[in-house]
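Researcher: We're teaching a course module on how sequence relates to structure. For the next exercise, students receive a sequence and then see the predicted structure as tokens, so they can try to spot secondary structure elements on their own. Here is the exercise chain.
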Amino acid sequence: MNILLINHYAGSPEMGMEFRPFYFAREWVKMGHHVDIAAADYSHLRMKNPEISKDFQTETIDGITYHWIKTGRYEGNGAARALTMFQFVGKLWRNAGEIARKWKPDVVITSSTYPLDTYAGQRIAKKSGAGLIHEVHDMWPLTLVEVGGMSRYHPFVLLLQMAENSAYRHSEFVVSLLPFAKKYMIRHGMDAKKFVEIPNGVVIEDWERPEELPEEYKVVLEEFRQDGKFIVGYFGGHALSNALDTLLDVAKLLKSKKIQFVLVGDGTEKSRLMERKHKEGIENICFFNTIPKRAIPNLVSYFDCSYMGMLDSPLYRFGICLNKMYDSMMAGKPIICAVNTPTTPVEKYQCGVMVRTPGAEKQAKAIERIYQLPEEQRNQMGTRGKYAVLNYFTYNNLAKKFEKLFT
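Model: And here is the predicted structure for the students to work with:
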């Protein structure tokens, strides 16, 4: 079967985020399908972007055919980024006939953060007689209204709302990463029978053959171990939304304990957070730079507990689907999940502690609770998370679930 996956920001392990399109495509290739990914040549999510000289330039990565579309660079979330969306979708829409004739898709999956790609997907699917699946990562345009503060009547918001409604009405299935978005989607035109939740997951091969950590990080982590420190680890973006100021507050509250906080990653807030650490003398916290995704298993093996937190947002009523949650579960480590959301696998599989009340005190108490548990109980908590991942959240299993929608 020929699968066309449209994702503006699709990347690969070497390029960086976003990984989900690559992981599903690679599994489908292993199953015997041919997969084309249409993606833009520039994404702010990638560490490395492809260098291309023309539209629809191709590149094969692990058996997947990437078709790169020139859209230009942008900074931030302003008009320049919106322009790249129109360029990406417009070029696919204008070339729909040629795409249908040359690529011959049997199924078209529209999978960008924003819903405008549905128009190109619908046109390609119609011309090729293919099935159409829409995948929802984030709630656009609701994010722009509830988080970005834009008016519901802003022309761009209205345009995105029309696209979202069209995607729900005209797709055969709507795949959602967010478990509690179904009622919202029904209100916007989706038939309830179309809804399918397929979350993120882990790649087992990455855990069987992980990359080594940089030597300087291994030395520091080994020293913490030898000193008997209880290591609370965070890995991921250092942005305001990740609520890392609260984690620094937690570290200050727990400075008398043998608890060490390790923050790994990069982002717009990192330099300010590091400056705050030094200014306030928060000695029980340290920062590492971003590491390759395939080195995460070796990183998390040093943690005694994984942390993930988010600033409160009304959007979390639809649920969350964080890659770091599944990585932490796979590592067999207890998890502190400080997000105000209905429920998560952390609760469902009893592999950590949920904290829904904002502020550092509740989070500090949750970390102290896990710190004080006997090692055997912490291990049992971590084992439950790993068992859940192996049974329900590997990309091999998730890709099979997805495949059932178009075979």
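Model: If you want an answer key for the exercise: The chain has 17 helices and 14 strands. The chain has a mean pLDDT of 95.
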